[in-house]
């Protein structure tokens, strides 16, 4: 079994838990609800990206995958000022990312949500009439390169996989799902 297959199997319950709890229908039913959802994602990504970049095994590849700026762009397009965005709550505490392999496990969750984001983007565009320019840049983050970015992440995971690292990668992915669930599903 590949590490990617193991991650998918072992984190499936956590993935299903967050998917059920987030109530996407309600969170994209209006611009206000959607903006509140993006604000929660922003609070997660700003903290996570800062923590993960310091330990990322390939910082250049990591930076290409960062999404906090896209979230800030969407929030501005939806009427928030830079000052309001800067004052948004941040996700604390974040799980420790002690090693590059822990970052890879955490990235599995974030990169996987990017894949799901393409489906969410279609719903947001249809329901709210938004585009990349008017508030849907985060969910369309990689555009046409989404599949290629996922494949390149899979290559990074495979290169890092070993009997010594795989348990840490899977544990980090599971913990990231837990933190993201608690943060996104908390009533602000």
Topology:
Layout: H1 3-10, H2 12-22, H3 24-27, H4 31-53, H5 59-64, H6 68-77, H7 82-86, H8 100-128, H9 146-160, H10 166-185
Helix pairs in contact: 1-10, 2-10, 4-6, 4-8, 8-9, 8-10
Which features would summarize this protein structure in a list?
single chain, about 190 residues, mainly alpha, Heme Oxygenase, Chain A, 10 helices, globular, Heme oxygenase, heme oxygenase (decyclizing) activity, Haem_Oase-like_multi-hlx, Haem_Oase-like
* CATH homologous superfamily placement: Heme oxygenase-like
* Beta-strand content estimate: under 5%
Alpha-carbon Rg, integer: 16 Å
Average pLDDT figure: 95
Extended strand count: 0
* Integer tally of domains: 1
Q: Uncertain spans, ≥5 residues at pLDDT below 50? A: none
Question: Mind telling me the CATH class?
Answer: Mainly Alpha
Structural class, judged by helices and strands?
mainly alpha
Order of helices and strands: HHHHHHHHHH
Measured as a percent range, the helix fraction is 55-70%
Biggest pleated sheet: none
CATH architecture assignment name:
Up-down Bundle
Shape: globular
Beginning-to-end CA distance, first to last residue: 40 Å
Q: What is the fold named in CATH at topology level?
A: Heme Oxygenase, Chain A
Q: What is the count of DSSP helices, taking H or I runs of 4+ residues? A: 10
Description of the molecule:
There is one protein chain. With 188 residues, the chain is mostly helical. The protein has one domain (3-185): Up-down Bundle (Heme Oxygenase, Chain A), CATH 1.20.910. 70% of the residues lie in helices and 0% in strands. It has ten helices and no strands. It has helices at 3-10, 12-22, 24-27, 31-53, 59-64, 68-77, 82-86, 100-128, 146-160, 166-185. α2 (12-22) runs parallel beside α10, α4 (31-53) packs antiparallel against α8 and α8 runs parallel beside α10. It is globular. The mean pLDDT is 95.
